[in-house]
Amino acid sequence: MKAAIVLALLAAVAVAAPDRAASVRDALAAVRALGSDGRAALDRDLYAAARAKCRADAAPPAADCLIDAARAICKGDGDAACAAAADVIATNLRAVDDFVDETTRARLVRGSTDYHAALAAELHRRYAALATELVLAGGTGDEAAAIDRLCRERDRAIHACAPGDAACVPSLPWSRCIAALVWFVGGAP
Amino acid sequence: MIGLKSISAIAIAALLVGIGAAKGALGATYLAHQSALSWLAVALVATLALGLVGIGWRFDVRSRAALALRRTGPVVVEGRAPRELPGAIQRVLVLAGFASIALAGLGNHAAARMIELRTELAKPSPSTYCLPHEAAAPAAQAPEAPPVDQAGCALVKRAFALGYAKSLGSCAPTTIIPVAAAPVAKPEVCTRRQLDEPYLHYAFRRIAGAAAAATSVDPLDAAEHRIDDVRAHLDYLDGLLADVHHAITGSPHAAHHLWVSLPDPHPGKLSERFTGAPRCSQRYADLPLWPRWRDDQRAELVEHVLGQLLFATRFGSTASCSDYTIHWDAPPDACAKLVADPQGFLDRDGALTSVRAVLDRRRRQIQIGELEQLLGRTPPPAPPPVQAVISLQCLAIDHAGSPTAATVKLDGDELTVRDLHVAAVRTTADGPIDVYLALAALLAGTDVPRARQAPPAAPAPAGEDFALTRLDPLADADPFSGARWPLERPELVDVFPFERHLHAFVDAFRRRYLAQRGRL
After folding, report:
1. What one-character-per-residue DSSP string does B129-177 give?
2. Considering CB atoms only, which of A15, A88, A113 is closest to B461?
3. The dihedral of CA B83, B88, B89, B92: what is its sign?
4. Which string of DSSP letters, residue by residue, matches B358-371?
5. Do A110 and B495 count as a contact with CB atoms less than 8 A apart?
6. In this predicted model, what pLDDT tens digit does every residue of B447-506 receive, in sequence order?
7. Which residues in B lie closer than 8 A to residue A155 (C-beta atoms)?
């Protein structure tokens, strides 16, 4: 059953060869259009929905559950921009374990009253390290194409990190790399 | 007509100044930062070079030959007095060239090292003199360990800080600092020459010490011990000499041979007769993670997978590629022939020499261990078993089968022969995954290569939004565990997380495989 759901999700993406840079551009525009308050609100709502409906406190939330939750949240807004931004947030929610190791997450749980805020701050530091790689990679003015290129090529090299190293970002799947950079770059002033 | 000396001076100056400029030695910033010492060194080197060249050049003598431009092109003409740059100008041009090169090679660092050379040479050598030990640095104060946070105490601490709670109760920090016992330092007495000790005194001390040692033992006992010692060495002389021979000639430390029934992907070139074949470390350096293969590149695919499994540094500890030999164009029944006639088959394929060398080297190491025990010394660690340093395996592409193993005897030692047959090597889609699984099973004896699982029928697409979230499950779609369908879609292959899944597979393989292997 799980395999069928995953295949359905992938089939929806694989119908036509997508212009990935264009989809990154759309996601960037959507994240920027939300503004700071809108981003924080959507992030909080989707996080709460993931914990309530997708059992995200025990394990990374399932992709189809997150999509359903995001659709329910964005239904009131009725525009594609909300869905594009929620897509980024949902992918970042699934990618938390890649960026923040278990020891650090346990430390955040013990040492903070608002785990989500503490985790967001920690993730922001890790996204910044990834954004530094984007800057160092150089490239032309089209940031969406640069993000797509970096994320496609980055996974071809090993990035081994010592546990707890906040300045090191490990090897990432393309979707998680894109979501992290779009969230950081789109949210930058 | 222009004299050849003038043309040469201009050409040499242009070339050397160009090289210096390319190295960045003529930049204004670089020149401005050169110290006086550096300029002196550059001037000395350039002048010396000019002087040496000038002996043969003879700047003040006109060229005997000149270059003339005719309709047919430049022509070298002799016997006429050509136009020539003055000798001083030629000197300046050549000097400028040498100075550029010297600036590129000598900088502030080189000049400083030259000045320090005399001081370095004058320093007393630690192997000859007793150097004073530096006062041990006081043990760095270990930073105070942060109090251990206890689960659920953040709110209690906040309440205490705000005054709502009178005490922290069980949330009070408790730290236990273990007391480390200071290691007892054994004072070491240095018997080498003291820094202020006169040479004659040192020499007398050494002679007196040797004489005292000589008279402290019974000479008959000492002589008998010495004779036994020499006799033991003579009994093991063959082994000792053979061990030295192995070390000097660079005998292999292990011999792993793989016969593959595919054509050689790197047939020997004529130039390699002179330059030699590329080293395996070069061949397997910088292997791409997941290259695209053509249908006619099956052998290259097998070689690539072998390199990823064993030699790619991106996945951690590697095997030593110089211990491995791939025999291409092997017959499909290579291992059957090997089992039937091990010595003849290995000899025909050029593998017998390396296998015998490793077996002999191992035997000599065992003998040296016995000698050390006989002499009452601590023997070296025993060498690894034969199966760890020698392995023979065959990969045949003819029909599907499971890995099989057999044992053969060579020079009294038992060797294991592993054989695997596969139906085909596919280079497209998920074909490389089958190659990974097959080679891993052959080399490390892992599970039988799994049959390719038929993917479920694709349901209708559920929507075209949330592209990133829909692609995210690829991170969990491990093709080595059966999730192969993303590899059949080029648009998904572009973004497939190969590193994640390959790293996990190769890491697990190496943990199993390298534990079975060793080197002498």
Report:
1. EEPPPPPPPPPPPPPPPPPPP-TT-HHHHHHHHHTS-S--GGGS-----
2. A15
3. positive
4. HHHHHHHHHHHHHH
5. no
6. 544 444 444 433 334 457 888 999 898 988 899 988 888 898 888 888 899 988 999 999
7. 289, 497-500
The amino acid at A106: A
**B314 vs A13, A112, A158: nearest CB:** A158
Cβ contacts of B491 on chain A, cutoff 8 Å? 13-14, 16-18
The nearest CA of chain B is from the CA of A189 a distance in Å of 24
Selected for mutation to probe chain B from A175, A176, A177, A182 (highest B CB count within 10 Å) is A175
Q: Which residues pair with B396 in a beta bridge?
A: B421
Q: Mutation target for A interface from B315, B317, B470: give the one with most A CBs within 10 A.
A: B470
User: pLDDT tens digits for B396-420?
Assistant: 999 998 889 999 999 999 999 999 9
Q: What residues form DSSP beta bridges with B422?
A: B397
CA distance B506 to B313: 11
Are A158 and B468 inside 8 Å of each other by CB?
A: no
Q: Are strands B255-260 and B193-194 parallel, antiparallel or unpaired?
A: unpaired
Q: What mean pLDDT comes out for the span B355-377? A: 93
Answer whether A174 touches B (CB < 8 Å). Answer: yes
- Token pair for A57: 């406190």
C-alpha distance from B482 to closest chain A C-alpha (Å): 11
B299 with B263: CB under 8 angstroms?
A: yes
Q: What is the pLDDT of residues B271-300, one digit of tens each?
A: 777 777 778 888 887 888 898 899 999 999
Amino acid at B185: A
Query: What integer best gives the mean pLDDT of chain B?
Result: 85
Q: How high is the ipTM of this complex?
A: 0.86
**Residue A175 is encoded by which pair of tokens?**
């979707």
Q: Which amino acid is at A18?
A: P
DSSP-derived secondary structure letter, B67: E
The answer, for B159 touching chain A at a CB cutoff of 8 Å, is no
pTM comes to: 0.69
Give just the sign of the alpha carbon dihedral B346, B348, B354, B356. positive
SS3 B385: coil
Nearest of B377, B273, B392, B292 to residue B335 by alpha carbon: B392
DSSP B83: B
pLDDT averaged over consecutive 10-residue blocks of chain A (189 residues)?
A: 60 59 91 91 91 78 89 77 92 91 86 87 91 83 88 77 75 92 90
Q: Where are the alpha helices (DSSP H) in chain A?
A: 2-14, 20-53, 63-74, 80-94, 96-99, 102-111, 115-137, 143-154, 174-186
A51 in contact with chain B, both atoms CB, cutoff 8 A: no
Residue B520 has what DSSP assignment? -
- Residue A103 buriedness (CB in 10 A; 0-12 / 13-18 / 19+): exposed
Residue B150 has pLDDT above 70, yes or no: no
A78 touches chain B (CB under 8 A): no
Place of tokens 């993931």: A50
Chains A, B: CB contacts within 8 A come to: 151
Tokens of A156: 């071809």
Q: How far apart are CA B34 and CA B112, in angstroms?
A: 11
Tokens standing for residue B88: 């001083």
Interface contact B314, partner A, CB < 8 A: yes
Amino acid identity of B111? A
CA-based nearest distance A4→chain B, Å: 7
Task: Report yes or no: A173 and B475 within 8 Å, Cβ to Cβ.
Answer: yes
Q: What is the chain A residue with the closest CA to B473? A: A6
